[in-house]
Structures are given as C-alpha cells and as structure tokens.
Amino acid sequence: MKYGIALFPPKNIQDFANSYRKRYDSHYALIPPHVTLKSPFDADDQEVKTIVKELRKIAAETDLIPLKITKFSSFYPVNNVIYLKIEPNETLERLHKQLYSGIFTDKPEYVFVPHITIGRDLSNAEYADVYGQLKMQTVHFEETVDRFHLLYQLENGSWTVYETFRVGKEQE
C-alpha cells in the first residue's frame, strides 16, 4: 500500500488555501491542504507496524511545529505549481531529515521546501495569469501545529489518515 507523512495546518490556513485550491488544484478532492513531510512510499502491513513505532518515537522528541506563511510562490520553471511558502525553521527541517534517515532508507526526490500547494497541472497561460495576480498579494499567517499524520492512499487516489502523532515535548 502507498503511504505518506504530512501535517495539516490549522483550519484558518486550510480555509484560505482551499479558497484557491478548489479552482486551481487538481488534487483538491483527494487530500486537504497539507505540508508533505515525506513523499509517498510503499510499505506492507509488517513494515507499517515498524514505521508507526518509529514515528511515535520521533513525535515524542519533536517540539511544537511553527508555521509562518509569508507569500505565494512557485516551482516554475520545474513545474507550474503555485504554493503558499512556509518559512523554513529548525523543527520542520529536523523532522523532515528524520523521516529520511534511520529505518527510512529512501532519499528525498527534491530539496525540502516547506509549502502548501494551491495550484497544479495548470497550463502555461493559466499559470502565468494566476501566479501573476497572487504574487502581488500580502499573505501572513503564524501558527503552530501539534501533530503530524501517517496517511495511506485509497483506490480512488484520495488520502486518509492511518494514524496521528502528537508532538511530545510540550506534553511532559
């Protein structure tokens, strides 16, 4: 089965992202607004048990996760993806690094750029028009997240939560 690891931003950020995603993101119906911490990977039932144990350990060692969103940005010219840029921070960087080390032997396909996708699969003309408008807007959110999620993909391509991991240091 295919799994992934993500965190979901607070509702106010999700609502803001969805106001754009419903029009510009072809994956709108498949998954809520999220920050991908680990790209999709395959695992069997036994491997998932080991992964869940490891994720519990990682969560217990992780601080609250700050999210500071400062602007719209883009992965152009690599692809026509428009996203909400999350300022990199030590907690997010460390969490991402842990999800690609230890029992997680795969390597990330791309450099980690924390973001929430709001548009994808746009034609060149649509991308230029939409991004041209969005990049002039002021965006500012500062929130914290206290959990991340192991997700799995259903047959219809949508993603659902397999297990939630509350980050632990503040709970002691």
From TrEMBL:
<comment type="similarity">
    <text>Belongs to the 2H phosphoesterase superfamily. YjcG family.</text>
</comment>
<dbReference type="Pfam" id="PF13563">
    <property type="entry name" value="2_5_RNA_ligase2"/>
</dbReference>
<dbReference type="InterPro" id="IPR022932">
    <property type="entry name" value="YjcG"/>
</dbReference>
<keyword id="KW-0378">Hydrolase</keyword>
<dbReference type="GO" id="GO:0016874">
    <property type="term" value="F:ligase activity"/>
</dbReference>
<dbReference type="GO" id="GO:0016788">
    <property type="term" value="F:hydrolase activity, acting on ester bonds"/>
</dbReference>
<dbReference type="InterPro" id="IPR009097">
    <property type="entry name" value="Cyclic_Pdiesterase"/>
</dbReference>
<feature type="short sequence motif" description="HXTX 2">
    <location>
        <begin position="115"/>
        <end position="118"/>
    </location>
</feature>
<protein>
    <recommendedName>
        <fullName>Putative phosphoesterase HNR31_001748</fullName>
        <ecNumber>3.1.-.-</ecNumber>
    </recommendedName>
</protein>
<feature type="active site" description="Proton acceptor">
    <location>
        <position position="115"/>
    </location>
</feature>
<keyword id="KW-0436">Ligase</keyword>
<feature type="active site" description="Proton donor">
    <location>
        <position position="34"/>
    </location>
</feature>
<feature type="short sequence motif" description="HXTX 1">
    <location>
        <begin position="34"/>
        <end position="37"/>
    </location>
</feature>
<dbReference type="InterPro" id="IPR050580">
    <property type="entry name" value="2H_phosphoesterase_YjcG-like"/>
</dbReference>
